[in-house]
Each structure stands twice: as C-alpha cells, then as structure tokens.
Amino acid sequence: MTTNSDDFLRLLRAGALFWSSYFLLLAVLDGIQAAPESLGAAYFVFYGASILAVLAIAFAPGLPRRLGKTYPPLLLVLMGFLPLLGETFILPRAGVEPWMTVLASSDLYIRQWAPTILVVALIAYGYARFQVLLFVGAITLFNLLLALLHPSPHARNVSLVISILFGVATAILAVGLNRAFQYLHRQQAALRDANRQLLELAATAEDLAISRERNRMARDLHDTLAHSLAGLIIQLDTVDAYWDEDPAIARDLLVQAVGTARSGLDETRRALGALRASPLEDMGLLLAVKDLAESAAQWGSLKLHLKLPQQLPQLSDDTEQCIYRVAQEATANVVHHANACHLDLWLSQINGRIILHVHDDGVGFDPAAVAHPGHYGLPGMVERARMAGGTLTVRTVPGQGAEICLDLPIHAR
Questions:
Q1: 405: helix, strand or coil
Q2: 33, 67, 156, 311: least buried by Cβ within 10 Å?
Q3: 3-state secondary structure of 180
Q4: What pLDDT, in 10s, does the model give residues 4-61?
Q5: Sheet holding 303-307, edge to edge
Q6: How many angstroms separate the CA atoms of 111 and 98, rounded?
Q7: pTM of the model
Q8: Is domain 278-409 annotated with CATH 2.60.120.260?
Q9: With 0-12 CB in 10 A as exposed, 13-18 as middle and 19+ as buried, what is 56?
C-alpha cells in the first residue's frame, strides 16, 4: 500500500457506497424492464447478499484493525468479481433483456464495466503499479474463463475478443491512473515534509524566544531582587551593629530595611507576573486552551475533538498556569512527535478536581522514557503537576497513541 491507511479506508468506504448504489439502481431498472416476479429469487438473493456483504465489510466496526493488510484486498476482490459472477450465472436465468449489451449476441453487459473501473481506480490509488496490473490481469483472465462457458461458438468468440479488448483498455487506464495517483502521493509527501520542517522551525523559534525571555527575566531579577536583597542584608548587618550601642539608630535602620524588603517584594511580584502566560491574561483559561488546541490541530493537520465546560470556578493562578502549560506541552508533543491523525482534548470538573485529558492516535512511545529528562518535556509536566498539588498520568503503548491526564485539586483565588 502506497498511501495513508486512514485516507484509503475512507476512500474504500465511499467506493463501497457507490458500488452498492449502482447495483440498487440496476435492480430498479431491471424491475422496470421485467416484472420483479419474473426475475426469480436467485436474482434478488445474489444481488441483495452481494450488496449487504460489501456494505457489512466496508462499515463493520473494528474489522479493518482485525484483518489488517488483508482487509482492502478482500473488499476490492468482492467488488471486482461479484459483478462478473452475477453477469454470467444470474442475469441469463432471470431473463433480463440485454438493454445495456455491447453486442446483442453477447452476454457481456456494459453494466459490469462501471464497477470494474471503480475497483481499478481504487487499486491504482492505494497500491503500486505491479499490484494494479496483477489485478487487471486476474480480472481479465476471469473474464476469459467465463467467456469460454458460452454454449454458442459465435457468442464465445465475441465475448473472448471483447474481454481481451476490455482487459487491454483497463490496463492502459489503470497505468495512467496509477501514475497520476503516485504523483499526487509524492506531492502530498513533499507537502507533509515541508509542513514538518516548518513546524520544526516554528518550534526552534519558539524555544529561542523562550530562551531570550528567560535571559531577560534573569537580568531583571538580578537588577531588582538581587540588589534589594543585597541592600537588605547590609542594612540588617548595620542594625545588628547598632542594636546595643544606639537603639534609636538601629530602629531607624530597621525601618529602612523594611522599606527595602517591601520594595524588593514589589519588584519580585512584577517579575513573577511577567512570567504568567499572556494568553491567560488576554483570554482566560477556557479560551486560551481552546485557542491552543485549535492552533495545534491546524499546524499538525489533525482532526480535533475538543470538549470544554461552559465555565469553571475561580482557580488560583498556579492552577490555571499548570493546566495551560501542560496542555501547551502535550499538544506540542502531538504535533511534533506523534505523527497522529486525531487529537482529543477534554477539560472537566469532577468532584472538586480539574481533569485535563490530551489523547492522540499516533505512534506512541516507550513509557519508560518518562523518567529521562528532556524527553518530550514529560518530566517538566510531571513536576508542574506536583508543584500544583496534583498528579500527571501517562498512558501509552508504542504504535497505539498516547494519553496524558492531569488531575488537580481546585484551589480558589
């Protein structure tokens, strides 16, 4: 298979719906041309069972996962060969006039061409050229074998010629479609690579911006808090020196030290306030998380399932900060590392606790990697949850996606 399995599965199901609708329409037209009772039970049993079988296989929950790589060929073989069997063994017995025949003397109906071309197009989309030609050769050989069953030598010869011509035409069409689809797949792969590189550049730019902001905050803290503390220590040392000799001077110096401490506290609060995520200040927690999830889904071309409450109780700044930062890190990991198609993000309030779920259907990872610092930022998320009084649980199996669950107590402001 040369394409994304999820995309091909959706295309197969659409093809199965078209295939079934096509034969339902033919049954209606046959019923108009000939009375339904004259068609016989075999006609309705065969085509009814064929349609039900194709639809059941196409839409059975979990069947693609259980059958694995054999699922698409099974569905395609049924869709390709059932019309030929019905054409040869069912329609002649039903007395259906050849209202869509190629030649009046032949039993080869043009009605079989549409589903055959549909199946060939699906195979050309999802498989390599050799596999496409293998299917065309098999269906042409099957047509030739069925043509040999004609009792009339003239009809047999006509059917053989038509089967060969149909096989050659189908092979040419299949090769052309396969080349076009392969070019499309290469373009899509190049687009995904470019998008991945863009995401990596964006992540690098984000890391650089964070590093610059940290350096700026370090300078601010050094210029404010460190100087305030240094001045406070000097003043307190002086107070200690004058405490016994001149209590009045010591008291004045103590008042000055208190003023210095308060000034340092104000500077520290301003510095810590600057560390708070600006989206939380601008939009609030719910809108900030919503914007975060939608941005991640857009960047990673993910199908998003977002579930947020209408409102939340007043949470402490630390709790909101923890929720937002964990959601930010978790969604970034999905975009950059998971190679997923779906992203689920749920935020809920249960029994006095705030629960955040972030789930993807990507490649997953080794749970033991959580213990190694720097791997996907998980140690940082665990530490954030611990400092906020909560827990962070990681559930993942390589190849089966990952789920991160943040559980925090509600701390009111």
A1: strand
A2: 311
A3: helix
A4: 577 888 999 999 999 999 888 888 877 777 666 667 778 888 889 999 999 999 999 8
A5: 303-307, 342-350, 353-360, 402-409, 391-396
A6: 10
A7: 0.51
A8: no
A9: exposed
